[in-house]
Amino acid sequence: MTKYSKHVLPAMLLALALPMAAQADANANGAAVKQVAIATAHAGMAMGAADLATARAHLHHVVNCLVGPSGKDFDAKAEDPCKGMGHGAITDSNGDVAAVDRLNVALGQAKHGLQATTLDAAHADAKQVMQTLQTK
After folding, report:
1. How does pLDDT run across 14-23, given as a tens digit for each residue?
2. Nearest to residue 29, comparing CAs of 105, 95, 81?
3. CA distances for 41 relative to 19, 46, 61, 131, angstroms
4. Is the model's pTM score more than 0.85?
């Protein structure tokens, strides 16, 4: 029985842990999907902004949703429309290399838009962000 316990117990623990790990991944992925949807909406709002300050504000919201409150690019002065949804879409997509790469591209585009000096340039960057976020 001792040999049986040594081999069966770890297998049983693994069998119990796998569904919990899968659920944790599913929850993180679900959080990432929600945060990307919010970021996409704010990219659209930046595209439709009537002035540069509003476009930048919405691009800040995109950045905050992508990086989360612990991210180095998080701006605590800007609103966080994804507050409480997860740890940021990039972090919550960890394990999905293609998604993380795509989200990092969108992050770079949003940060570029924050540096825009004209409304047209901010609109163009917001459009790129939106297209990148909508690409699967």
Report:
1. 343 334 333 3
2. 95
3. 33, 9, 10, 11
4. no
CA dist., res. 73 & res. 103, Å (int): 13
CA distance 6 to 17: 17
Q: What percent of the chain is helix, strand and coil (3-state, nearest 5)? A: 75, 0, 25
For the stretch 111-116, contacts whose Cβ atoms lie closer than 8 Å and that sit 24 or more positions apart, written own/partner, are 111/63, 111/73, 113/46, 113/55, 113/56, 113/59, 114/56, 114/59, 114/60, 114/63, 116/52, 116/55, 116/56
Dihedral sign computed on CA atoms, order 14, 16, 20, 25: positive
How far is 12 from 124, CA to CA, in rounded Å? 54
Residue 21: enclosing H or E segment and its boundaries? helix 2-47
DSSP-derived 3-state class of residue 48: coil
pLDDT at 17: 37
